[in-house]
Putative oxidoreductase
Amino acid sequence: MNASPSPLPTAIITGGSAGLGRVIAETFLQRGYRVMIVGRNETRLQRASQTINHPELHTAQCDLLNTEQTQSLADRVQRELGRLDVLVNCVGASDRSLVSELTPDRLHELIDQNVVTMLLCSQSMAGLLEQSSGTIVNIGSLAGKVGARYLGGYNAAKHALTGLTQQMRLEMLPKNIHVAIVHPGPIRRDDAGARYDDRVSTSMPAQAAQPGGGTSVKGLDPQRVADAVLRCVERKKRDIILPAHMRWMIALGNAFPSLGDWLLLKFTSKRGE
C-alpha cells in the first residue's frame, strides 16, 4: 500500500552520507523537509543517521548505477513517503592525471560516477517529481565550465553533466520539473591536502594533488554550497557558480579563448613547482 502524501515536502540526497551531501541533507532538514539520504555503504549511512539524529531523516542503500535498484528506490519512495519534491544528485568523484596518462577505463568510471548515476536516478524519480512539480539539482563543478590542468577525466565528466543538465531542463519544462545545477569550486574538507597524493604521477607538480588541481581559488565552505542548492529550489535558480566572481572569468574565457587559457595557466599550478 502506498503512503498518503505527507504535508512535509520530501527531498532525496544521493551521496548524502558524508561530505557535502550530508551538509545538504542537514540544510533541508532544518528547512522543514523530510530527507532520504542515499548511498552504497550501509555502515556510512547508519553513521550519518546517528550523527544527524533527526526524526525526519530516512536512509536507503542503493547502487545508483543499477537500473533495477534505482527503480526500486523510486518505488520505495512512493510506498513509504508518498511524495517527492526535490532530488539532489550529489554523487561524484574527482581525479588527478595528465590527459596523456588518462586511460579509457578511468574515463568511463568517472563518467559513470558523475553522469550516469544522475541520469538513472533522475529517470527513475521523474514520475514522482512531475506529480509535485518538483526540482532536480545536480552538483556540478567549475571543472564543468573550464578545462583546468591535471584533473584527468574529471573535466570531461563534469562538462558532460553540465550539458545533460541543460538538456534535461528544456525537456522537463513541459512536465513542470525544474532542473538546476550548482558549479562549486574546490570545497573545504579535512583531507583536502592528501586525497589525491596516490594519483599524482612524477610527471605532474606536487601541487596538483591540492584542491582543484592546485588552483588559486579559496576552498568553499560546504554550507555555502548547500545554501545555493536551496536557492535553486526556492527561487528556481537554474545555474549557480561558486564563487560568484568566477562567472565573469568564465564568460571572458569563452569570449576570448586565448585570455581564458592565460587565466587558467595563471591560476593553476605550474610544472616544476
Notes: The first strand starts at residue 10 and ends at 14.
